Amino acid sequence: MIDIGLSKMALIGAVALIVIGPEKLPRVARTVGTLLGKAQRYVADVKSEVNRSMELDELKKMKDTVENAARDVEQSIQTSASEFEKDWAQATAMPGAEVPDASAVVPAYKHPGKNWRLKKGATPQWYKARSGVRTKALSGAARVARYRPQKFH
Q1: Is the dihedral of CA 139, 140, 141, 144 positive or negative?
Q2: What pTM did the predictor assign?
Q3: Is residue 80 in some structural domain?
Q4: Residue 48 sits in which domain range?
Q5: How many domains are contained in the chain?
Q6: Residue 47: is its pLDDT beyond 90?
Q7: What does the longest C-alpha to C-alpha distance in the chain come to?
Q8: Has residue 84 been placed in a domain?
Q9: An example of a Gene Ontology BP annotation on this entry (predicted)?
């Protein structure tokens, strides 16, 4: 950066006072101050943007290494699982029988045969009616109208 000491600042102030004049000097000093503030904010924004981009690059590298490690683990698990399935098929096979392929060991899908819309454990309506269980909700106005005592004329 620029090395400006107290003596150089005093010299610049004296020259500015002579060149600009005492009437315009405060306005020029305010303008220079605001411009310097804007420049400092701009430099700080650029620094923070560069730091964010560097952190983003580091995070991307870290993500790639974690994904590669997960892929390696998944491949090792798959190879060990296929070896286990082959060993299991050989161990459980009848003597003299042909060992089936590992993909043929998986049974076919069988539908459970359930009707999910049918409520099998629901209480019957006739029981609810006999025991006085409310099956329908009434609004506040309907409840007032239903249970209001009748006026006798």
Answers
A1: positive
A2: 0.38
A3: yes
A4: 6-92
A5: 1
A6: yes
A7: 113
A8: yes
A9: protein transport by the Tat complex
